[in-house]
Write a structure and sequence with these properties.
Layout (H helix, E strand, L loop, with lengths): L3 E7 L2 E15 L2 E6 L5 E4 L2 E8 L4 E7 L2 E5 L2 E5 L2 E4 L5 H15 L6 H20 L9
Helix pairs in contact: 1-2
Bound molecules: adenosine-5'-triphosphate.
Adenosine-5'-triphosphate binds next to strand 9, helix 1 and helix 2.
């Protein structure tokens, strides 16, 4: 399968650079898969698990949250707000963040802005748990 050059740079710094067969990631308009020779394209990234298929055909997963995806002249750049490879995800931290967000959302007096923030935090934790191979509905 043809490959192309992918660069992933998050707010924390460079996360990946190399030849890949494809990347699948969640954008604000749904899941998008970029193959070699994709037409020029730019979109905002949502929150989800990204799947990178390396040049040798192996898949690597990452939690990919926010930012931009750009395809220009065959160069593919993913510029996420946060990016964590599955093996780097601190599962206990994500479980704790999920529990804190769920606790906060039980508060009936929470104003709209605080509710939106807590929901986003909960969703980030769920994405991290899902990306690390955990079943967010069946944690122990
Ligand atoms: P927390 O409450 O645990 O900080 P959060 O969703 O508020 O979670 P973010 O603001 O999205 O955290 O991320 C802050 C930084 O911490 C980023 O660099 C992100 O990659 C990292 N990070 C957050 N949660 C985890 C995790 N469970 N495992 C590894 N890195 C994480």
């Amino acid at each position: 399968m043809s490959t192309y050059h992918l660069q992933v740079v998050s707010l924390d710094g460079p996360e990946f650079e190399g030849e890949v067969q494809k990347i699948l990631l969640r954008t604000i308009d749904g899941d998008v898969e970029i193959l070699a020779r994709h037409t020029d394209f730019c979109t905002a990234i949502g929150m989800g698990t990204a799947k990178v298929t390396m040049a040798d055909g192996t898949d690597k997963k990452a939690a990919c949250i926010g930012g931009m995806l750009s395809v220009m002249n065959g160069e593919v750049r993913v510029l996420p707000t946060t990016w964590e490879w599955a093996e780097d995800i601190d599962v206990e931290r994500a479980k704790a963040a999920k529990a804190r967000a769920e606790e906060r959302l039980k508060d009936q007096m929470l104003d709209k802005e605080a509710r939106v923030r807590a929901e986003a935090k909960l969703y980030r934790a769920l994405v991290r748990l899902g990306s690390s191979g955990q079943d967010p509905n069946n944690l122990n």
